[in-house]
Each structure stands twice: as C-alpha cells, then as structure tokens.
Amino acid sequence: MKYSPRSDGRKFIIPSFLFIVALCVLAFINEVRFDSFLSFGRCALSNVPRNSSSLETPLLSSSSDDDEIRILIGILTLPDQYPRRHFLRMIYGTQDVPAGVKIDVKFVFCNLTKEDQKVLVALEIMRYDDIIILNCNENMNKGKTYTYFSSLPDLFNETDAPNPPYHYVMKADDDTYIRQESLVASLRPLPREDLYYGYVIPCPSMDPFVHYMSGMGYLVSWDIAVWLKDSEIPKKHLEGPEDKVFGDWIREGRRGKNRFNAKWSMYNFPEPPTRCTHELWPDTIAVHLLKNQEKWIRTLNYFNVTSNLKPSKLYHIP
C-alpha cells in the first residue's frame, strides 16, 4: 500500500482543530464564571459596613461630654413677686428637655428687706431650692446684672462638680417665656467659649456685632462669667440700661468673639405691633413682654403646653 503524507496530515489537523475549539469553549465558560463570581463579590462587599473588618479599630461614638449641655437660667425678679415665681415654676417645671441636658432655672434678687420676706422666701427655698439672693440692694440698672454674673463662679465652685458647672449662663426677665428644648437645639452647634447669644438691638438689625443683646434674655458661655468676676472693666461702668451696659463691657473687653443672633426665634409679643414684635410661630425660643395673664395664656395656648395632660377620673377639663 502506498503511503500518503497528505492523508496523515488531514488526520492530524482535524483533531487539533477540535482540541483548539474545545479549549476556546472551556476558556469562555470559565471567563463567564469568573465574571459572575466577581459580580457576586462586589455585590456582597457593597453590603458590608466599611468599618466591619476585625483588623480595623472601630469608630468610637461621641463622648457623653460632647452631648451633655448644662445651662443656668437666672430669672431676675423681686423678692415680693411670689405669685409670678409660682407661675413660672409651673411653666418651666412641665417642660421636657432632651436626654443629657441639664437646665437649672433660678430666681435671682437682692437682699431681703422685710420681715415677711425672711419667712416666705425661706419657705420657698426649703420647698424648691431655686432662689439666689445676691449681696446687693435691689435695683434694675445699677449693677444687679453685674452682681449676678460675677457672683456665679464663687457660687458654683464645688470641687466635686463638673468643670465648668454650666456651659452657658443666661439672664432673663420674668415676663419672658423661654422654650427650653428650642433653646437647647439652637445651642448645640455653637461654641462653648467666648459666646454672646441673644436678640440683637436695635430691632431691625441682624448683625450681632453692632450693638448688644436685648435684656429679654441673653446668654454667655461660662468663661465670660469668670472674666466678668475678674475684670476691672465692668466695675467702672455699672449704671445704665443693664443690657446695653452689658454689651459695652463685652465690646470694651474684646469678648464675645462668637456671637449668635436668635432673631426672629426670640421676639416681643405681637401686640401692640412694633419693629421688635413678631407673630407667634413654631420656630420660637423666647417670647418677651408677657405683661399680663391674657398674653401668657394666649402664648401658652399657641404652643399647646397642656397637650401632655393625662386623663383621669379626678378631673374634667374640656
């Protein structure tokens, strides 16, 4: 039989071709499987928290010190204003404050001068422990505000107390309604040092660096109270409209580099209308000039302060 090299070559080419085709098919299948595996891996990893790896240090939550806010509200009033103090205790004692927040409301006045005051105010202190009696003669614009702020560092200097005892200290009038939760919310993003906060005067102004904050209620960080105690500046200028004089101290002492104008979340009661008034509205921190019960009731009704009254068989309030 005659040998044909062409025939043997065909026999070799055909299996080789089939083998190559098989390799290509196998490679294609593997590529599809690999891509699918990668897609699955990307999908799975996208649902894993970035810090879930045991090799990474877990992020620490914010410290309680950062979340905690301590505020002292000093309501400047007169010793004989017993009904007003009892009324305000109801107003502030029924307000809720967020967790981690401490708000102390204190009533502030000067030395007692009557025998009945010595008994009645003493009973109030025994019952409520919310009164500060300053060593001064009662006045409005002759240094009472200075005595209040400058006395605080010595009044609250307990060694076992937090430092500072309060992050913020406030002076408020007794005809001002302060919504504590709104006050706290406005303070959370603000600095805790060298802060001067309130309703800027004059009423049309929105620039807290021009003049001063209204006496309806202004607040400073604790370090400013300490500065007032030690500085000679306020001692040289005690008399005059207390809020304006306070602004003068801040300006002359180059304090209050951080300022916050709470207008129009702080405002005067809407009637009679002036450039300082505003309609009652939800975004409210403080309402001022509540000079009579009618204005107080309108304000309290607007903010629905009795909404948490629990039902009981003991009373019926329509």
UniProtKB/TrEMBL annotation:
One of its GO terms (cellular component) is Golgi membrane. It is a single-pass type II membrane protein. The keyword Mitochondrion does not apply. The chain crosses the membrane at residues 12-29. The keyword DNA-binding does not apply. This is Hexosyltransferase. It is found in: Golgi apparatus membrane.
